[in-house]
Amino acid sequence: MAMQQNGSASDIHKHNDRSASNHPITTNGSEEVEHQQTGRFTFSAEPNLEDIRRMQAEFTDERNWNQFHQPRNLLLALVGEVGEVSELFQWRGEVAEGLPDWTEPEREHLAQELSDVLIYLVELAEKCNVDLPRAVLRKMALNRLKYPANKVHGSAKKYTEYKD
Ligand SMILES: Nc1ccn([C@H]2C[C@H](O)[C@@H](COP(=O)(O)OP(=O)(O)OP(=O)(O)O)O2)c(=O)n1
Description:
Layout: H1 11-14, H2 29-38, H3 49-63, H4 71-89, H5 104-127, H6 132-146, H7 149-152
Helix pairs in contact: 3-5, 4-5
The protein binds 2'-deoxycytidine-5'-triphosphate.
């Protein structure tokens, strides 16, 4: 069962307030402004990844489960949960952004399975000594170098497919 605090999948509908920024770190300030103007879905600011790491560490400590949570086991658990997410999309054909045709129980199920993926991902990163928030910043910087916006705009080609 996924760890749940107070939220539910209906959070999907609740966090569309564009009036206040909830992104303390942005990779591109102008991008954030654009998101606010376009009404793009945003997350709550909390819990952050360190909060999630700590909560999961408390959860496993309380159960004496750290003995099972080595990196390889966490990776297998993560992949298993990704499979569970895939099952929810299986045989449905293309699904429109915002999942307009999904029922509330289906949305909640998806929220739980995605949470399982994130929880195991965060714990895997912890057990591999990867500082995930900072690693994401470094990787996004690399992605921007690899895919300059003016070069790849509107194209989904892999960087290896560009000639120059
Ligand atoms: N050894 C375990 C077992 C569970 N969990 C935590 C992390 C996941 O968020 C969630 C996974 O629980 P389940 O293995 O019961 O998987 P599901 O919640 O997906 O249940 P089901 O497989 O019935 O859909 O519980 C954990 O940390 N370590």
